[in-house]
Design brief:
Chain lengths: ~350, ~70
């Protein structure tokens, strides 16, 4: 028996659709008026300052917030720690009461991790896949959560305001936006000047937390972990075969040795020299891998962050929305690339020389 | 899934080519600066970087070409 057919569209009744439509249109109008595009076109509007989207000032080096035992603590480090805490709490909550018939959260994690485990097995084989899974999965989760947590509102919008003495290399000059107002220019950034206890200081506003992947040090650290992981397993499993991939003087020395026995083997020496060259090339590509690992993740994440800032500046509320969805996807793709590349390289390292090429 | 692995390995090709060429040129410039032989080492470094880049890329895609040949031969 079917009930009376409801009228509506996209699974919603008309009143709900109308309300959603009105809200969307209101946001578009508000975004247009308060954003940079509307501000330029409708310059006569005199909106209160808190309603106007301020221009983004992205700068790459992570600012130091405070010092602990002389160690500088940056905002990206804080974000990294938050990621670690979130991951630990998540794992604890999910595994606290494991059931044979999993509940929703457990099922979500089991299917996600199960998928990565299957990928590990299919690329590295049954035995090695099981051994590599923990590191590969940790890299995947850490990169993914770093990327996704930095999309949560509050990352990048909570600011820490502090007064610092004016540096010696600062230039005191009129502000670009309001020439009657004096600001201090330090490293191409304008700072407000305020007087605290009779002393002139600059007002430094720093983001309290910023996505950890947008600091080049975090991708570099993960890349180095992956590098050491590959070398460790390469040396442990393939031993001399692994070293011979990079440093291969054997054929050259053997050919030179034959000269002392009275046999001049020109082709042997030539091929030996080529082997040494190829080994050097392999070593070069091993090192360059770190650079590409680091800058691929850093570049993608930083570009995403800046893209969101610009979108929110040009047309607030509306334009960032599609880019948010894009950023969710990019975070997932980068995490997958980082972890699976580590898996592929460690698999190549443990298989005997050129074993991966012969099948 | 092994196709995935093969494709993933190629994600670093761009960086490899760029760093080889730029690295070769910079080492050449540094040597020129040291021995006052402009532009000899710079051109040499650039050419060496190009050769290394081409050979490196060839090494990287060789396994894929082998796979294809094996498939064509049955």
């Amino acid at each position: 028996m079917t009930g009376p057919k409801k009228r509506g569209c996209l699974g919603c009744s008309f009143p709900v659709l109308i309300i959603v439509g009105v809200i969307v249109i209101a946001l578009v109008v508000l975004g247009f008026i308060t954003g940079a595009i509307g501000q330029n076109m409708l310059s006569g509007l005199d909106l209160p300052e808190w309603l106007i989207a301020s221009s983004p000032q992205p700068h790459l080096p992570a600012p130091e917030l405070f010092h602990v035992f002389g160690f500088p603590i940056t905002n990206t480090m804080l974000a990294g720690w938050i990621t670690v805490i979130v991951l630990v709490v998540f794992s604890f909550v999910v595994t606290r009461r494991m059931q044979i018939v999993p509940r929703r959260l457990q099922m979500l994690f089991e299917s996600a991790l199960g998928w990565i485990y299957d990928v590990c097995n299919s690329i590295a084989g049954e035995v090695n896949g099981r051994r590599f899974f923990p590191v590969v999965c940790t890299i995947f989760l850490f990169v993914l959560f770093n990327a996704w947590l930095s999309l949560i509102p509050g990352f990048g919008s909570i600011e820490l305001v502090k007064n610092e003495p004016i540096p010696e290399d600062a230039q005191i000059m009129p502000s670009k936006e309001d020439p009657a107002h004096l600001v201090a220019l330090v490293d191409d950034r304008e700072y407000e000047i305020a007087t605290v206890d009779g002393q002139d200081t600059i007002v430094v506003e720093e983001e309290l937390i910023r996505g950890s992947n947008t600091d080049v040090n975090t991708p570099l650290a993960i890349a180095l972990v992956s590098f050491v992981f590959v070398i460790f397993y390469g040396l442990k499993n393939a031993r001399m075969d692994f070293v011979r991939q990079y440093v291969n003087f054997g054929p050259l020395f053997r050919s030179i040795g034959r000269i002392f026995k009275g046999k001049f083997d020109f082709m042997g020496i030539f091929e030996g020299a080529i082997q040494v060259f190829v080994g050097g090339l392999e070593f070069l590509s091993l090192l360059i891998r770190n650079v590409s690992f680091t800058f691929r993740l850093f570049g993608n994440m930083t570009a995403g962050e800046i893209l969101l800032l610009i979108a929110a500046f040009l047309l607030p509320f509306v334009m960032p929305f599609p880019f948010y969805i894009l950023e969710l996807l990019i975070g997932l793709v980068q995490a997958l690339i980082f972890s699976l590349l580590t898996l592929v390289f460690v698999t190549m390292a443990v298989t005997p020389a050129h074993g991966a090429e012969s099948h | 899934m092994n196709r995935w692995a093969a494709a993933l390995r190629l994600t670093g090709v761009g960086f490899f080519i760029g760093i080889c060429i730029v690295g070769g040129t910079f080492v050449g410039l540094w040597l020129d600066d040291k021995f006052n032989t402009e532009p000899l080492f710079m051109i040499g470094g650039l050419l060496l970087g190009l050769v290394v880049a081409v050979y490196g890329v060839y090494q990287m895609i060789r396994p894929l070409m082998n796979n294809r040949k094996n498939k064509e031969n049955g």
